[in-house]
C-alpha cells in the first residue's frame, strides 16, 4: 500500500471482507496467534505506550500499566485460557416428535467485519480489549483510536500493523471526518465507547445497514453511603476510584448520596484520604493525571462553584490541572449534577434515608455503575432489586470492571450490550442454531 495514498474506508472494508470470506480468520490457531502477537506488542512496547499515555493524559507509568497495558494483557491471558471451551458447540435437547435420531446444537459464528471506535480516556485498554474480543471470535477488525489522545493513537497506528495480520486488522486515524466516512460503510458490528451524543450518531449510521451496535456510554454513577459504614475506609476507596485518571473514568463514582449526619462526618475523612493519596500538593504528585484538553478543563472549572469546597478546588489552565476536589452542600439542581462530571470533582448530595436515595437514583437515567457502602444485607438486597444500573458494586468502586468473567456494559442511557471474557465472544458472534436429522 502506498504510504502517500491512504486507503479509503470503502477500500479497507472491502479488503477486510475479502479476508473474512476467504476463511482465513476461522481457525482457532489464527485467532490465538493474533492474541499472542498482541500480547507480545504490549509487553515489548509497554514503556512506549506508557510514555504516550503520559503525553496525552499525564498518566504515571504505574497507572498506565495497571489500568491499560497490564489490564489488557490479563484479558488476553484469560481469553487464551478459555477460548476453546467458549467456542465449543453446545448441545440442545430435541423434542420427541423429531425422532430419537435427531440432534441439535448451537455454535458461534463470527460476524464478519467489525468497527471499534475508542475513546480518549483509556485509549489503549478501550481500543484493544474490544478488538481482541472481536479477533478471538474470528472477525476482521477496523479500529479507530481517539484523535484526542494523539500520541497514543500514533503509537497504536505504528505498532499494531507490525504485530497483527494486516489482512485482517486495519487502523484508521483521524477525527470527525474520518469517523463519519467509516460509519457510512457497512460493517457487521460496530462497537463504540464514548458519550451518548455520539452514540446516537453511531446508531443512526448503523441503522442504514441494519448493523448491530454495542454502545459503552457513561452517566452519573452514584455512591450510596449508609449510616454506620466505616467512613475512613469509604473515603479511601471512593477517593481512589474517583480520582484515578483525574476522574476521567466512565465508571468513576460521580457523586456521593448519604444522609446529612454521615455527609458531615465524611468531610474530614475525604480531606485525609486525598492527602494520603496525593500529598499536601497534588499538583506535584507523580500519580495524579491531567485533564485531556482545555475544552474539558473549562467545562470542569465551571462546575467548581456548585457547592462548598471540602478539599481541592485549585486549578491551572496552562497545565490542565484541576485538584482532586470534594464539594459539600450540593443542590441536586446545581450545574455539577446536570451532566456526567468526568473529572476530579466529587459532590456530596444529602437524602433523608435509603428510601429517598433509591427514589433519587430511579428518578434519573440508569447509570453505568452503582456503588454502595453498607453493612446491611437488607440494604444490599433492596438496592439490587429496586434499582437498575450497568453494574453494581458493594464496598469497592470500579472493581467489577476487572473481573473478566463478569459482563461489562450499560443499560438505557449508559449503553447497550456488554463485553469482556466470554461475553466478548457472544457480542462479536452469531449464535447459530443447528438441527441434524439423518435421511435414512
Task: Provide a brief overview of the structure.
With 440 residues, this protein is an alpha/beta fold.
Could you walk me through the main structural features you see in this protein, from its secondary elements to its overall organization?
Helix content is 41%, strand content 19%. With 440 residues, it is of the alpha/beta class. The strands form five sheets. The chain has a seven-stranded mixed beta sheet with strand order 10-13-14-9-8-15-16, sandwiched between helices. Helix 2 runs antiparallel to helix 4 (61-87) and helix 9 (231-243) crosses helix 10. The chain is globular. The termini are far apart. The mean pLDDT is 97.
Question: Which key phrases capture this entry?
Answer:
single chain, 440 residues, alpha/beta, seven-stranded mixed sheet, six-stranded mixed sheet, 20 strands, globular
SSE diagram, text form:
Layout (H helix, E strand, L loop, with lengths): L8 H13 L6 H17 L1 H12 L3 H27 L2 E3 L10 E8 L2 E5 L7 H12 L3 E5 L5 H14 L5 E3 L4 H8 L5 E5 L2 H12 L5 E4 L5 E4 L5 H13 L11 E4 L1 H19 L15 H8 L6 E4 L3 E2 L4 E2 L2 E4 L16 E6 L3 H9 L6 E5 L3 H10 L4 E4 L13 E2 L5 E2 L1 E2 L2 H6 L1 E8 L4
Parallel strand pairs: 3-4, 3-6, 4-5, 6-7, 8-9, 8-15, 9-14, 13-14, 15-16
Antiparallel strand pairs: 1-2, 2-20, 7-18, 10-13, 11-12, 17-19
Helix pairs in contact: 2-4, 3-4, 3-6, 4-5, 9-10
* Span between termini: 54 Å
| SS field, number of helical segments | 14
Q: Level of helix content?
A: 40-55%
Judged by helices, strands and strand pairing, the structural class is alpha/beta
Average pLDDT reading: 97
* Radius of gyration, in angstroms, nearest whole number: 23 Å
Strand order in the sheet with the most strands: 10-13-14-9-8-15-16
Q: Which descriptor suits the 3D outline?
A: globular
- Number-wise, the strands total 20
- Amount of beta strand: 15-25%
Mind summarizing the main beta sheet? Answer: 7 strands, mixed
Amino acid at each position: 500500500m502506498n504510504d502517500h495514498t491512504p486507503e479509503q474506508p470503502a477500500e479497507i472494508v472491502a479488503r477486510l471482507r475479502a479476508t473474512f470470506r476467504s476463511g482465513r480468520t476461522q481457525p482457532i490457531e489464527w485467532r490465538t496467534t493474533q492474541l499472542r502477537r498482541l500480547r507480545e506488542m504490549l509487553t515489548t512496547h509497554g514503556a512506549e505506550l506508557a510514555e504516550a499515555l503520559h503525553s496525552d493524559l499525564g498518566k504515571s507509568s504505574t497507572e498506565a500499566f495497571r489500568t491499560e497495558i497490564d489490564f489488557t494483557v490479563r484479558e488476553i491471558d484469560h481469553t487464551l485460557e478459555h477460548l476453546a471451551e467458549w467456542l465449543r458447540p453446545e448441545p440442545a435437547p430435541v423434542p420427541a416428535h423429531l425422532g430419537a435420531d435427531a440432534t441439535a446444537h448451537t455454535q458461534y459464528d463470527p460476524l464478519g467485519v467489525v468497527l471499534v471506535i475508542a475513546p480518549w480516556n483509556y485509549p489503549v485498554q478501550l481500543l484493544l480489549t474490544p478488538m481482541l474480543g472481536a479477533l478471538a471470535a474470528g472477525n476482521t477488525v477496523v479500529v479507530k483510536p481517539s484523535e484526542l489522545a494523539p500520541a497514543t493513537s500514533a503509537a497504536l497506528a505504528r505498532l499494531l500493523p507490525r504485530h497483527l495480520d494486516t489482512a485482517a486488522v486495519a487502523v484508521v486515524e483521524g477525527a470527525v471526518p474520518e469517523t463519519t466516512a467509516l460509519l457510512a460503510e457497512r460493517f457487521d458490528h460496530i462497537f463504540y465507547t464514548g458519550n451518548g451524543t455520539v452514540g446516537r450518531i453511531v446508531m443512526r449510521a448503523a441503522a442504514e445497514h441494519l448493523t448491530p451496535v454495542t454502545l459503552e456510554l457513561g452517566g452519573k454513577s452514584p455512591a450510596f453511603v449508609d449510616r454506620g459504614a466505616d467512613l475512613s475506609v469509604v473515603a479511601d476507596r471512593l477517593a481512589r476510584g474517583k480520582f484515578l485518571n483525574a476522574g476521567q473514568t466512565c465508571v468513576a463514582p460521580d457523586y456521593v448520596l448519604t444522609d446529612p449526619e454521615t455527609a458531615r462526618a465524611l468531610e474530614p475523612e475525604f480531606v485525609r484520604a486525598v492527602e494520603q493519596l496525593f500529598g499536601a500538593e497534588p499538583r506535584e504528585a507523580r500519580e495524579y493525571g491531567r485533564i485531556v484538553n482545555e475544552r474539558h478543563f473549562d467545562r470542569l472549572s465551571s462546575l467548581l462553584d456548585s457547592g462548598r469546597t471540602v478539599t481541592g478546588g485549585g486549578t491551572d489552565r496552562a497545565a490542565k490541572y484541576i485538584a482532586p476536589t470534594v464539594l459539600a452542600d450540593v443542590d441536586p439542581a446545581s450545574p455539577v449534577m446536570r451532566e456526567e462530571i468526568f473529572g476530579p470533582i466529587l459532590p456530596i448530595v444529602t437524602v433523608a434515608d435509603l428510601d429517598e436515595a433509591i427514589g433519587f437514583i430511579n428518578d434519573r437515567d440508569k447509570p453505568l455503575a452503582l456503588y454502595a457502602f453498607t453493612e446491611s444485607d437488607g440494604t444490599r438486597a433492596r438496592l439490587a432489586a429496586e434499582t437498575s444500573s450497568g453494574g453494581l458494586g458493594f464496598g469497592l468502586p470500579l472493581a467489577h470492571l476487572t473481573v473478566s468473567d463478569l459482563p461489562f456494559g450499560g443499560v438505557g442511557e449508559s449503553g447497550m450490550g456488554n463485553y469482556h471474557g466470554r461475553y466478548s465472544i457472544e457480542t462479536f458472534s452469531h449464535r447459530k442454531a443447528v438441527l441434524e436429522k439423518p435421511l435414512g
